[in-house]
Task: inverse folding
């Protein structure tokens, strides 16, 4: 267990990340506060017992201070770094060092890391930072099993009820996974893969199911498993075959493809 303390090598190598790591442009606006939050001019409510007879009534409740998109950009960048392996399992990373890497304060980085901790991707190390979890084959298999328990019966029900033209609308998403697989980039493929699976479940109309399934899918994608371009291409080909079976209304083929897809943790 060690904390990255690598300094900046000139202007091209960000501190705290390996050389060649992709930089993520985070451009807080002039309205962003020092901690990456968007400040709004809000009125302080009157204390109890304070006379407010001369004040004009406010028709709608005023919004509380809104956070800017900085934390969201940092969260997306950290998720990408997890999938690509730039953030290595077992390593400890501090919010200040990662903040320097992104050109922001430690606060939005710390909040993004707290979200990743809730998702099970990192764990808090007191007074040091956050350690990337080391998942073994058993945990990844458990995630795949839970995904199968949730998604397989739903997909079989949808295969019997959703019209072919609705499935045909998903063709561009399936083709996108094939293009992403051809690049060999795990982060690019991971995003397109989740988008396709979300679209498959969307006709269920159950937003909670789609959200939970997507979260489980995301968790299964890190830390990265050593899978090359050939694996990604084969996985994307299963998407195309599944979509063809759904359009044809062949439930038996759908059952075999979906079950096999999860057996391979796809």
Result:
């Amino acid at each position: 267990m060690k904390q990255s303390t690598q300094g900046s090598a000139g202007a091209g190598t960000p501190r705290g990340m390996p050389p060649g790591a992709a930089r993520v442009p985070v451009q807080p606006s002039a309205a962003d506060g020092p901690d990456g939050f968007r400040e709004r001019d809000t009125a302080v409510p009157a204390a109890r017992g304070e006379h407010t007879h001369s004040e004009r009534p406010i028709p709608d409740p005023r919004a509380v201070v809104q956070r800017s998109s900085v934390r969201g950009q940092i969260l997306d960048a950290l998720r990408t770094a997890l999938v690509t392996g730039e953030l290595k399992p077992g390593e400890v990373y501090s919010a200040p060092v990662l903040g320097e890497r992104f050109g922001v304060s430690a606060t939005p980085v710390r909040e993004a890391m707290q979200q990743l901790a809730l998702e099970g991707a990192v764990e808090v190390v007191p007074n040091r930072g956050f350690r990337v979890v080391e998942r073994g084959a058993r945990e990844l298999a458990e995630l795949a099993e839970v995904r199968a328990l949730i998604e397989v019966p739903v997909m079989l029900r949808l295969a019997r009820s959703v019209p072919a033209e609705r499935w045909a609308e998903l063709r561009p998403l399936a083709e996108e996974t094939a293009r992403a697989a051809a690049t060999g980039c795990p982060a690019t493929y991971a995003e397109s893969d989740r988008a396709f699976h979300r679209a498959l479940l969307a006709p269920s109309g159950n937003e909670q199911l789609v959200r939970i399934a997507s979260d489980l899918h995301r968790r299964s994608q890190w830390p990265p498993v050593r899978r090359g371009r050939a694996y990604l291409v084969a996985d994307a080909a299963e998407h195309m075959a599944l979509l063809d079976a759904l359009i044809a209304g062949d439930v038996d083929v759908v059952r075999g493809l979906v079950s096999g897809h999860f057996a391979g943790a796809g």
User: Anything to note?
Assistant: DSSP finds ten helices and three strands in the chain.
